Amino acid sequence: MAPATQFELAQPPNDAVSSLSYAPQNSTRLLVSSWDKNVYLYDTHSGTEEAQGTRISTFEHRAPVLDVCFGATDNEAYSACLDWQAYKIDLETGEKTSIAKHSAPVRCVVYSPEQSLLITASWDQTLQIHNTKDPSAPNLTISLPGKPHALSASPSKLVVAMTARLVHIYDLTPIPALFSASSPPEIKPWQQRESSLKFLTRAVSCMPNDAGYA
Fold this sequence. Notes:
Elements: E1 17-22, E2 29-34, E3 38-47, E4 52-60, E5 65-70, E6 76-81, E7 85-90, E8 96-101, E9 106-112, E10 117-122, E11 126-131, E12 140-143, E13 148-153, E14 157-162, E15 166-171, H1 175-178, E16 191-194
Antiparallel strand pairs: 1-2, 2-3, 3-4, 5-6, 6-7, 7-8, 9-10, 10-11, 11-12, 13-14, 14-15, 15-16
């Protein structure tokens, strides 16, 4: 009989899973965010035959966590929370720092390694862009025409899927220079589209070669 191609992780979350993210360098490290107000870090290739995978750490939040992603290294993560904030998590020490504050729940968070930017999308209909090279710099804010429900970044582009089947694409390349401007100009979409899908887009993913998204 062929070996099993799937297995259930030991010590799974206590409520619905909201997001998954694999580490950029070590493909066995998996982050899981959940409605049980926690972010979990797993090693998917350890454990026993009866309980595969090992929960390495748990990072508690004040409210359900809607999204999670890795940062520049396998020991850095970012979370989007229902308490209107996004957090940076040191996966080694467990230290958690607020890096973005919105006026409604934060639905999505994505890190751009090429631009060293952290982008959060909130149901207050804004994006906030955080300069990870200079955490003391004020975040840049982009107003959106609808509530965001999905977010993804390629090496040079950011795709935002919103209510009313709206999709905005932003060029990330010039944004790092705006943090040093005395009065940054308004950031406008590189492209504005309407989804060809009949219903709301809840997931979007950019191609790593910058050719498009799905």
